[in-house]
Amino acid sequence: MPLSRRAILITGASAVVIAGAGWALTRAPNAARAPWRKASEGFGDPRLDILAYAILAPSAHNMQPWRIRLDGDDAFSIYCDRARLLPENDPLNRQITISFGCFLELARLAAAEKGFRLDIDPFPLGEPQPLLDERPVALVRLIEDAAQPPDPLFSEALSRRTNRSPFDMEKPVADADLLAIVRAAPSDVIPRASSDPLLVEALRALTVDAWRVEWTTPATRRESVITTRIGKAENNAAPYGLSVIGAPMDALKAAGVLTREKMDQPGTTAYEQSLSFYEKACETAAAFAWIKTAANTRGDQLAAGRAWMRMHLAANARGIAFHPLSQALQEFPEMAQLYARMHETLGATNGETVQMLSRLGFAKAPPPVPREPLLSKLVSA
Ligand SMILES: Cc1cc2nc3c(=O)[nH]c(=O)nc-3n(C[C@H](O)[C@H](O)[C@H](O)COP(=O)(O)O)c2cc1C
Questions:
Q1: Based on the structure, what is the number of domains in the chain?
Q2: How far is the CA of 315 from the centre of ligand 1 (A)?
């Protein structure tokens, strides 16, 4: 995946950041963040209340590919909005399917909190291959169940963030925390985490290399650039995709330094700083966590997403910053060599697939990034 978003440091930024602090405070894209508030307020309807949390799930490039159809009084179906696929970075729709797994797990946690069990039927009309199609990703039924125990991970749902800041190199992640993160995953996937210095060093280098391939390959870079929203107005107008938010970003945009055209143009400040921003992120990993699956069916990808959601929430509960780094796991041809090296490095042998990889460490949490309102994600039959 891509460049970021919240905190690109553009050399010479101060030269164009001329506005005062008062103006800076008005730059928050509050409308785009409203769904984070709406989840805790609720809609007064159990199904919508559960879905209000589910739409806060992480998704590849924040594409929020879900379309939700309410069925009868107690069920809903989830479909993929195929306008939200990422054909260059995610040519097999694997990451988008994982995103649906995150959505379903967050729905399950919210349901348990409200005294419901979810009966989830994945791909009820068959697994779409080689690409996702118009068939449902899942049918979900709510079953009232007073015996359903709440899950402590739910309390992390509103504060969970993808954190792309450099991590504190002086602060190691404790083994007990790594173990807790791994144990948060169910047994239908193979979760792992490590702070072994040799492995961490190898993974830092591999993730940097893979990022360079993704960013310097025109098709994958362009896809990320097109989905990037720069500044308050763009994020409020289209609250999905990659977000570059904050007063300095608005100022750089106004000055013509940070534009999508410049980001896509080698040699410009926007292009080069995007490259080095993400490199810095990879280089400051204190530890890594990952998930492998024995096979790579759509069901495995959904299971990986559900487990990933839990690992991310478990990390959050321990104050550990979490940043997925998917570049070397992507299936476009220019990445093939690094894909193989990553699989070898993580011991993915005998056909295992590494579904997700994240760096772990410590850094101040960023504010929430945009979400589309729940009601805009509902579709009729
Ligand atoms: C399948 C998947 C792959 C992801 N890969 C990356 C990645 O390579 N780099 C990255 O910065 N974020 C990655 N993310 C994080 C998303 O960009 C992030 O969830 C989204 O922008 C929303 O932000 P949030 O998690 O803070 O709510 C990934 C998320 C998912 C679900």
A1: 1
A2: 15
Helix ranges, 326-367 (H): 336-345
d(CA 290, CA 354): 7
Q: What is the pTM of this model?
A: 0.94
Rounded Cα–Cα distance for residues 163 and 12 (Å): 24
Residue 333's pLDDT is what?
98
In this structure, the residue with its CA closest to atom 2 of ligand 1 is: 60
Tell me whether residue 313 is in a domain.
Answer: yes
Q: What is the CATH number of the domain that holds 336?
A: 3.40.109.10
Q: What is the reported pLDDT for 5?
A: 38
282 CB less than 6 Å from ligand 1?
no
**Residue 102 in contact with ligand 1 by CB distance below 6 A:** yes
Which positions of the chain have pLDDT values less than 50? 1-19
**CA distances to 71, 121, 132 from 126, in Å:** 19, 11, 11
Q: Which residue has the tokens 């559960």?
A: 50
Whole-number Å distance, alpha carbon 63 to ligand 1 midpoint, is 9
